[in-house]
Amino acid sequence: MNLQHLKPFIVLTEELNFHKAAKRLNITQPPLSRAIMQLEESLGVSLFLRLPKGIELTAAGRAFRDYALTILELADIASEQTVQTAEGYSGRLDVGLFNFGGLQSVPHILAHYHRARPDVKICIHNLSKAEQITALHKRQLSIGFCRFPSADPDISIDRASREAVYVALHVSHPLCQLSEISLEDLEGEPLILYPNDAPYGLRHEVCSAFRSQGMYPTIEHEVDDVMSCITLVASEFGVGITTHSGTYLKLPGVEYRRLKNNMLNSIDLNCIYRSDDTSPLLASFLEVIRELRDI
């Protein structure tokens, strides 16, 4: 059965006249007659009764009309969905996030993308930086967000956002009286740093900044993530150092002050993805990231 014969068939069932149906289809009557004849031959049944004053549908023709309408409708849907997928407007995007990472920028990116492409299903996976890399290699992830990614020949790295660095303090701490805090102000203070399991991360950046000024940080606690860090600050265990995203954790008794330091002024949040991924979904998502990044 040739699908191209279905539309002429449907038009003829509506007109029940070869001349009128051919006019609607913008063709002559002989090609229409051939199309109907070929359709009947392929099905092995007569779809129309040829009468002296016109035609009418046979019982088989009436039954086939319902199926033909459904087939044409499904073909239109399939065509539309295929085009949408090819243009990045439909499909599934698997996004990797690290614990509480990018509390500010990532939700903003996801919301902006979802508004623009609501038919794309976005699946979030909570994965460490190393787990994101592994998932990308296994093609289980479309894109990941992390800080300080290691170089990998098969992985591309783009900056998603740049965040200022802040100091988390308990409200009773004397440094809350300052509007900005320097590393010199933190010398000798019990610090709570994270992450403690990454090959390189914010903890290492903080330590490097201290050493560059001839000081050594007093590390009281090394924890897994920003939530653990801020929780300990709220419990008066010490002073935390986090990014602007971390300031969105509004725990009772915690205040934030901007860290003033040239070396530790800001931290990049990166997105990572396979270099050979030509998916329209990924391309459209990266377009949103770059658009928001450059605002």
UniProtKB/TrEMBL annotation:
Ranges for domain HTH lysR-type: 1-58
Its taxonomic placement starts with: Bacteria, Pseudomonadati, Pseudomonadota, Gammaproteobacteria, Enterobacterales
Recorded hits in InterPro entries, A to Z, give: LysR_HTH_N (IPR000847), LysR_subst-bd (IPR005119), WH-like_DNA-bd_sf (IPR036388), WH_DNA-bd_sf (IPR036390)
Q: Which UniProt keywords apply?
A: DNA-binding, Transcription, Transcription regulation
What is this protein's record name? Answer: LysR family transcriptional regulator
Species of origin = Erwinia sorbitola
Its family remark reads: Belongs to the LysR transcriptional regulatory family.
Q: Which domain of life is it from?
A: Bacteria
* A GO molecular-function annotation: DNA binding
